[in-house]
Each structure stands twice: as structure tokens, then as C-alpha cells.
């Protein structure tokens, strides 16, 4: 199978959709945040607090490069919401497989993440405004990185998974 890469804003469902896809396809599920936390032995929040966002973005690029070296293909990968903002990352993503953008509205993200404490970029007095601003700033990067766009707001989990499986089936070499 061609690798499936899920991109999209925080809270769009990359992890839960990715895990279900991997279960159905009987392949590995990987997540860049998890790989970085494991490698660093500390949480994303700690990395942001100690080293800053720039260092974290470097770690994301290195993580993609490591994944490209993996000779066994056939995995579902979920990447951090800000990873596609770097051009080098967008190029690496396309080399890795089908890049599926899970498109979500700011309202859905706000409802899901308003009490979340694990996303350093959303620890703001006005999280809703922050979500809207970040989404606007990232829109073109997401669209540029994606090979396919799947709408997730107001759709069932099953529908989303089915649509991605269909895309992946059609893309087989
Ligand atoms: C970030 C998204 C997070 C995580 C970090 C930064 C972002 O991942 O990488 O907090 O810049 O959007 P999720 O998209 O999995 O929440």
C-alpha cells in the first residue's frame, strides 16, 4: 500500500482517524509528535517551553527525514498541525505518500480543544481568536501540502475513514 499521511489543524481528528485507518489496513500507525516525545524523553509542551518553537520545527523535519529512510513502507502517519508550514516539510510529505488534509472549521476545533492544556500554541486568553488566526495563516500551506482534501466537520467518523480508504485504494501503483 501507499503510505497515508494525515495533515490538518490541531483537533481535526488526525490521531483517531489515523488509528482506525491503520487498524483497517492492518499496518503501523505513527505520529510525529509521539515519535519526537519518545526520542526526546519529554513532552511537546516541555520542548516548546525549554527550546522554543523553532527547535521543535527542526525536530519535525528530522523526524520526516528519518521516516523516509525506513525501507518498509505501508504505514499511516499523523503529523503535528504546524508541520506543513515549512516548505522542506511539504516536499518531504509528498515523498512519503498520499497527503490527506482533514479540513475542519474553527468552531469544531474550539469545541474540542477549549479546555486542552497540551497544545502550547492554544494557551491564550482568546483561544477562539488564536485558532482563527492560525488557521488563516496556515490555509495555503495546508492546501499546498495536500494531495487530497477530506471534510471532517459535520461528518461521521465512519464516513471520513471510508473516504480515505477509497482514495488510498485508487492510488495504488
Ligand atoms: C502544533 C500541533 C500539535 C503539536 C504542537 C504544535 C501546531 O499537534 O505538534 O503542539 O503547531 O499546530 P496536533 O496537531 O497533533 O495537535
Please, could you describe this protein's structure?
Helix 1 packs across helix 8, helix 2 crosses helix 4 and helix 3 packs across helix 4. With 173 residues, the protein is of the alpha/beta class. Strands 2-3-1-4-5 form a 5-stranded parallel beta sheet, with helices on both faces. The longest helix is centred in the C-terminal third of the chain and has 19 residues. 56% of the residues lie in helices and 13% in strands. Shikimate-3-phosphate binds next to loops.
Write the layout of secondary structure elements.
Blueprint: E1 4-7, H1 14-25, E2 28-31, H2 32-40, H3 44-51, H4 53-69, E3 75-78, H5 87-96, E4 98-103, H6 106-113, H7 127-145, E5 148-151, H8 157-170
Bound molecules: shikimate-3-phosphate.
Cα distance, first to last residue? 8 Å
Largest sheet: 5 strands, parallel
- Which ligands appear in the coordinates? shikimate-3-phosphate
Instruction: Give the % helix.
Output: 55-70%
Number of helices: 8
Which sequence of strands runs across the widest sheet? Answer: 2-3-1-4-5
- Annotation, overall tally of beta strands: 5
* Integer-rounded radius of gyration: 15 Å
- The ordered H/E elements are EHEHHHEHEHHEH
Strand content: 5-15%
| Average of per-residue pLDDT values | 95
Outline: globular
